[in-house]
Design brief:
Length: 612
């Protein structure tokens, strides 16, 4: 195999990034895994020793987006590679490091007998390079080996980072400057002077904070280039200075900033570090054409989410098989109404998972609810409540029908028969009625011993309200938004022992006991506030007013709710009451029957039966 002879000297001594040799072919003589930071989230970095047959060079790094090639034993000692995209950066003032961003494996290690040639070490210190520059002949590089298609990563139009002239904006001043652009993957806290060119893939809203040092405001932006991604955060004055300048989807130059170890609890970006923008940070809009990626994902198959730890952040791509109706919940923290919608997402792995959209994203999804779109989610939080499920956070990025290869493959799979394949739901115990969870008949509760295990069982039942008990269906509760404890009346005032306070008023809370029935049997169920309100069609406050002032209307509410069909999400668990062990079923949610979605669900069950 012909290597690109003498190319390493040309790369390291090249004065201009625009003049780097194209597609050099080299051999790997060493691969070393470097120690990751304490909060790196498992993101490895690999140092390489490269040889061109004449010299070997020890200061080379593999871009983190290529780590899978090491894990798959494609990048290993003796392998011959073509460097499709790379850069060479100065580190700590005197050391040049080659960073490989994209490559093609020409020959695997198993196909190469050993080290090619007798290469000698080439120094990476700049102080030793000046005498060498005049000795390097500019002979053409031999790249006459065709790449293997199966091992090729897509090669962009440009081979390296440009060094453009551009206009800087800092306050009201403007100036023209020429600068070297560093790849994001090369940034470390030990560098002081750098400029990156990156696309803003996500920008948060401005948030307020309060801590021991005082109050303030902040925002964050996710940045991506060909080499990797990083999160940049700005506080207080930086918010006023730069927030309006940055727009999602546009490309900017960022000069100066503080690098620190990333907190992986709040970020799923594949970078050991995160950036803090300070008063010295200069941001400029990039006006030149550049082929930067829109977004970087590290997708997991849905079946693999079952092995992910609780509260971890993951990226997934899948088809929305069913979408639930939008609903409103009241947050405990501030007693605020928030919209939510549950999605059942599937992929080719044969698994399905429940993902919850919140707020504006839940409302905007209405136009896609019946279209089975492909969705890509970056940074979804994993929950272990009733199996595995995902929550889409404010920091998550949610794309509908993204223009990426994985989405196109999923679309073809789903439309060509994947929609009829049976998927195993990782969220089967939690998925709610309109979201494609497990449906049971009431008889199956007993037949399958649901609720008899150490953990509660969650499932759906389509049933009618055969009887609703009016007696003791509500109680007077503490009016505090964070407390629902029962109060006691004392001289026209209401005392909450938990809060240790007396209030002039109270709020009504529902605790409704009902008997629900389907064709197979009946079951007593306890429903609390939101579920009971859905069944009765009135709020607890309205029902309390009827109880106190209009007994006829109070009775009418229960009469009208009787014998109506609902989709109940039930929780079943054995509990001890007065030394007696009994099965307790409570309603997590009650939804009015959506005949369109219910018909669709029944048709899917019929197709499964036909396939058996």
């Amino acid at each position: 195999m012909a290597l690109s002879r003498n190319v390493l000297k040309k790369i390291v001594l090249c004065p201009d990034p625009d003049d780097l040799p194209e597609n050099p072919i080299v051999q790997i003589l060493g691969v070393k895994k470097l120690q990751s930071g304490p909060n790196s989230g498992g993101q490895d970095r690999y140092r390489l020793v490269l040889s061109d047959g004449e010299n070997y060079y020890t200061s080379a790094m593999l871009g983190t987006q290529l780590n899978d090639m090491v894990n798959e034993e494609m990048v290993e000692v003796k392998a011959i590679i073509k460097m499709n995209r790379f850069t060479c950066n100065v580190i700590q003032g005197t050391r040049k490091v080659i960073i490989i961003l994209e490559l093609t494996v020409i020959q695997k290690a198993s196909e190469v007998p050993g080290k090619i040639g007798e290469p000698v070490q080439f120094s990476d210190l700049l102080e030793n390079h000046s005498a060498m520059k005049a000795q390097i002949k500019q002979e053409p590089i031999n790249n006459n080996t065709a790449p293997l298609k199966n091992n090729t990563y897509q090669k962009p139009a440009n081979n390296n980072y440009n060094k453009p002239k551009s206009t800087f904006y800092s306050g009201n001043a403007a100036q023209t400057n020429t600068k070297n652009v560093f790849p994001i993957a090369s940034l470390t806290p030990y560098q002081n002077r750098w400029t990156i060119r990156a696309r803003v893939t996500n920008k948060s809203a401005i948030r307020n904070y309060s801590n021991a040092r005082g109050e303030g405001k902040l925002f964050s932006a996710d940045l991506v280039d060909e080499s990797g991604e990083i999160r940049a955060t700005g506080f207080n004055d930086v918010v006023d200075k730069h927030y309006e300048l940055l727009e999602k989807g546009k490309v900017y130059y960022f000069t100066k900033g503080t690098l620190k170890t990333a907190n992986k609890q709040y970020s799923s970006l594949k970078n050991d570090y995160e950036m803090t923008m300070n008063n010295d940070t200069v941001i400029e809009l990039c006006t030149e054409e550049c082929d930067l990626p829109q977004l970087q994902f590290d997708f997991k198959q849905i079946k693999d989410v079952e092995q992910v730890n609780k509260d971890a952040l993951v990226d997934i791509v899948g088809v929305v098989k069913t979408a639930g109706d939008i609903s409103q919940i009241t947050t405990k923290a501030n007693n605020r109404q928030v919209s939510k919608r549950d999605l059942s997402i599937v992929d080719q792995s044969g698994a399905a998972i429940n993902a919850t959209l919140w707020g504006g994203e839940a409302e905007k999804f209405e136009e896609y609810a019946t279209r089975n779109p492909v969705v890509a989610i970056k940074g979804a939080k994993v929950s272990d409540f009733g199996g595995r499920s995902l929550s889409i956070l404010n920091s998550s990025i949610f794309h509908v029908n993204p223009d990426i290869p994985e989405a196109h493959q999923l679309r073809g799979w789903f439309d060509s028969g994947g929609m009829n394949e049976q998927a195993t739901s990782l969220s089967g115990q939690r998925m709610e009625g309109t979201s494609g969870g497990k449906f049971k008949t009431i008889a199956q509760i007993k037949d399958e011993n649901l609720g008899m295990g150490q953990k509660a069982d969650y499932f759906n039942v389509r049933a009618y309200c055969a009887f609703l008990r009016k007696e003791n269906c509500m109680y007077q509760a503490c009016p505090s938004a964070e407390c629902n404890k029962k109060v006691t009346e004392e001289n026209g005032q209401y005392r909450c022992e938990k809060c240790d306070r007396t209030y002039p008023d109270f709020k009504y809370r529902l605790i409704l006991s009902s008997n629900i029935a389907d064709f197979s049997g009946n079951q007593w169920v306890t429903s609390f506030q939101e579920s009971a309100e859905a069944m009765l069609g009135v709020t607890a406050k309205q029902l309390g007013d009827y109880k106190d002032n209009d007994e006829v209307q109070f009775d009418r509410v229960f009469a009208e709710a009787s014998f109506k069909p609902f989709i109940f999400t039930l929780r079943a668990k054995m509990e001890t009451y007065q030394d007696d062990l009994k099965l307790k079923c409570s309603s997590v949610k009650a939804s009015s029957l959506n005949y369109k979605q219910e018909s669709k669900r029944l048709l899917e069950e019929i197709k499964l039966l036909e396939a058996m």
